[in-house]
């Protein structure tokens, strides 16, 4: 296995460029850190282009051999690649999944309007995965699902279901099913809605909620009642409740 001992190595510089969304979008590649995330990418049959490992003997040989190229790095290089305080000692460059065919047949869809907090986005992706939704559609202005913090929060679920960036209004206009949006005004208690075989669930920005213009395209507005003194629920918690309610 070829060794890389400098953070100035061209391959390491290229990997570090993938920390920027612009580079990920242009190349179709993602930098992933940690055994669990890389293992989930392998299970999802994504292409592992390069693997960088501090101590190869610590990792499963099948995981290592799943990569097209493998490199042994030292701890200093790992620190340069890592997005955490304590590097996990294994990194991979993977190809983003091709989701075009899955989008066309999606029946249960999560629509996200400018969700910007990586933790919230990762949690929603993980919940959508757990509930076996078919698709996540994200509006421009949302956090990138392939940034490091979202990847960690999703626990690898980002590799399990298709996620696309698209104008939500356009998607809803073409969607053949009811679309529910979260709102306070002109909304019904979510408990009044039955589970659906086909649906879209629209969640909005943490501070501003769903864009009022988008709400005009929804079939029904839903609200979750507050029985205590809290003013509202975190969007990831609210979204999780509604996903499972609609899923049934």
From TrEMBL:
<dbReference type="GO" id="GO:0003723">
    <property type="term" value="F:RNA binding"/>
</dbReference>
<dbReference type="Pfam" id="PF00588">
    <property type="entry name" value="SpoU_methylase"/>
</dbReference>
<keyword id="KW-0489">Methyltransferase</keyword>
<protein>
    <submittedName>
        <fullName>RNA methyltransferase</fullName>
    </submittedName>
</protein>
<dbReference type="InterPro" id="IPR001537">
    <property type="entry name" value="SpoU_MeTrfase"/>
</dbReference>
<comment type="similarity">
    <text>Belongs to the class IV-like SAM-binding methyltransferase superfamily. RNA methyltransferase TrmH family.</text>
</comment>
<dbReference type="GO" id="GO:0008173">
    <property type="term" value="F:RNA methyltransferase activity"/>
</dbReference>
<keyword id="KW-0808">Transferase</keyword>
<dbReference type="InterPro" id="IPR029028">
    <property type="entry name" value="Alpha/beta_knot_MTases"/>
</dbReference>
<feature type="domain" description="RNA 2-O ribose methyltransferase substrate binding">
    <location>
        <begin position="31"/>
        <end position="100"/>
    </location>
</feature>
<dbReference type="GO" id="GO:0006396">
    <property type="term" value="P:RNA processing"/>
</dbReference>
<dbReference type="InterPro" id="IPR051259">
    <property type="entry name" value="rRNA_Methyltransferase"/>
</dbReference>
<dbReference type="InterPro" id="IPR053888">
    <property type="entry name" value="MRM3-like_sub_bind"/>
</dbReference>
<dbReference type="GO" id="GO:0032259">
    <property type="term" value="P:methylation"/>
</dbReference>
<dbReference type="InterPro" id="IPR013123">
    <property type="entry name" value="SpoU_subst-bd"/>
</dbReference>
<dbReference type="GO" id="GO:0005737">
    <property type="term" value="C:cytoplasm"/>
</dbReference>
<dbReference type="InterPro" id="IPR029064">
    <property type="entry name" value="Ribosomal_eL30-like_sf"/>
</dbReference>
<dbReference type="Pfam" id="PF22435">
    <property type="entry name" value="MRM3-like_sub_bind"/>
</dbReference>
<dbReference type="InterPro" id="IPR029026">
    <property type="entry name" value="tRNA_m1G_MTases_N"/>
</dbReference>
